[in-house]
Write a sequence for this structure.
């Protein structure tokens, strides 16, 4: 099973050269939520994960990792 990876989101955002604010603007996901996702406090809904992935030019699967 795959689960959301805060590290994958943070890495993808950094590789895209975006701040959390810029990603929020592109994706429509509030910056405060992106911070919570990246810090592992909460996981995004499928809708928000899709918006983030789309804004980063990725697939939702790119924001996931295999659960142990």
């Amino acid at each position: 099973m795959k689960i959301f990876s805060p590290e994958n989101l943070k890495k993808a955002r950094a590789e895209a050269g975006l701040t959390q604010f810029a990603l929020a603007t592109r994706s429509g996901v509030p910056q405060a939520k992106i911070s919570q996702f990246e810090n592992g406090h909460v996981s995004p809904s499928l809708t928000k994960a899709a918006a983030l992935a789309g804004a980063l030019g990725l697939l939702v699967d790119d924001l996931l990792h295999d659960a142990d």
Q: What stands out?
A: The CA atoms of residues 21 and 61 lie 23 Å apart. The two ends are 8 Å apart (CA to CA). The beta strands are 2-4, 64-66. The chain has four helices and two strands.
